[in-house]
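Reproducibility note. Readers wishing to regenerate the assembly model reported in the main text can use the exact inputs given here. Chain order matters: entities are listed in the order in which they were concatenated for prediction.
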Amino acid sequence: MINYNFQRNLGVDFIPDKNQDDHVEHIYRQKTDKRILKKNPWRDYRLHGTVLILVIIAELIGTIKIPLTKDVAITIMPLIYTIILGLVFYLAKPIKWIQRKQARIAEGAMMLFIGVLIAKLAVSSGQSIGLIFDMGPALILQELGHLATILVLPIALLLGFKKESIGMTNSIGREPNVAVVVDKYGFNSPESRGVFAIFIIGTVIGTIFISFLVTLSLSFLPLHPYAFAMASGVGSASMNAAAIGPTLAAFPGMETQIEAFAGFSNLLSFCVGIYIVIFVALPLTERLYNWLEPKIGRDSILPAKKEDD
Amino acid sequence: MVELIDGSENVSVHGIFNWILLLTIFSIITVVANFIGYEHPIADSLIGMAILSLITLAGVWMERYLPLNISSIIYISVIGIALAFPGMPTSEVVSYYVSQVELLSIVTVFLAYVGIGMGKSWNEFKTLGSRAIIITILVIASTYLGSALVAHIVLVMTGVPA
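Running the prediction on these inputs yields the following structure tokens for the assembly.
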């Protein structure tokens, strides 16, 4: 129902008319269906051929380790090359065969391919189901760790955001969170503008950023391997995927367990996380906002945003 | 507007045909990645990808056809866990062939599509200020580190050996 409301709002207010600019609509499975049904997406050999070539290039380069100090190294994995090359291929002017149409198909197809990723993680979870029950408390409680985003609220206020900061810092701002915020505050509210901003920026830099964040955390934080695995279930399939990579590389021999925890924690984020946002995170963020805003709030410096109207 | 709202509740055979072909393409690219990156035998990883594709297909189909409002992600997870559950007659076969497909091969191919798809958001991205970028980075970092720390504390308190 939430999704439906959001979708209706999108249809009425949000989609800017030029070039059918539809950057958030892939949230909706129905839309994906439609795209997959209408365009015969498998027929776009240019897209799939390009992906094949990107993947071959990435796998041939392989994993690169850049040592920072004696013990600390940054690991750059093939998955980073494919994201960046994919983006570069789309943006580069001379490459004429990857255009908006291909990006739309890629986005639609992605929603189906998430399934394969989830299936692989589920098989690993099934194999180690006993272990998952043993680690139940940690798996469930770490979902509450996602509330740490609220700590960013004071910084958002100091940077001059007003009510936008509620939308920005209540959660990681992926599809389900966008839907919740829009449903609660309405489409043209500052809160929704905030969550849209996080959504768009997260889409573009989230995967790349989290992979570096995880690499650095693995080097500098002496945490339990399972803790890293569980934390990678942040509630976004692509960020989850990007976070698992370096974790797997850092703990060889523990692949099945790491995949099992990462997959299960992502599943939990998906089922339980949304209720944590609705019943805990959003009310908490609002309270903190009402308490802090009079104290440290600045004059609003927000430039007029595109999403405004 | 109506065109934006109504989806395709009546997914036809044609739709399933499209899904199957897309999954086949995805499987082939993943098997190539799996072979170049990890040198797993092509035949075994093809069977592994076929199993994963069938699970995906079943989940996606159930989401659209069963009268329950449950996301395909949940169906796919439940089917995958059930097939590999120790003691199930399928568990050995499924576990063996699926283990021939490295998760990272799937991720690498998946993220190539993500990379091309996210190019579409580039223009909107450019209009957002650096302040919003700072907040996004902090939000992602805090959600990851927050749950890593909580998980670590609980694991240590419950005495799980590293």
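We highlight two features of this model. Residues 28 and 46 of chain B are 7 Å apart (CA to CA). The two ends of chain B are 55 Å apart (CA to CA).
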